[in-house]
Design goal:
Structural class: mainly beta
Low-confidence stretches: none
Radius of gyration: 12 Å
Oligomer: single chain
Length: 70
Amino acid sequence: EPTTATVVDHKEKSNGLKAIVIEYNIKDKYYRLTSNHYSKKAEAVDSKVKIKYNPKNHNEIIWVDNNHNH
C-alpha cells in the first residue's frame, strides 16, 4: 500500500540540478531520505509524492508515482 511522503527540502549540486528530500511517517516515527535523481525540475517543497517502503527496513523505499525514478 503506497504511503504519502512530503518534499521538505532540496539538495542542490553546483551545476544547479536539484534532488528532493522527502519525509514520511510510519507508526509515529519520521524518516527522511534524499533522492538519487537530480533534475532541473525538482518537485516543490510541500509537494506530496507516493512511495512504498520495505516493512522490514523503513529506510528502503520505491517511488510509485512521478514520471521518473528518484
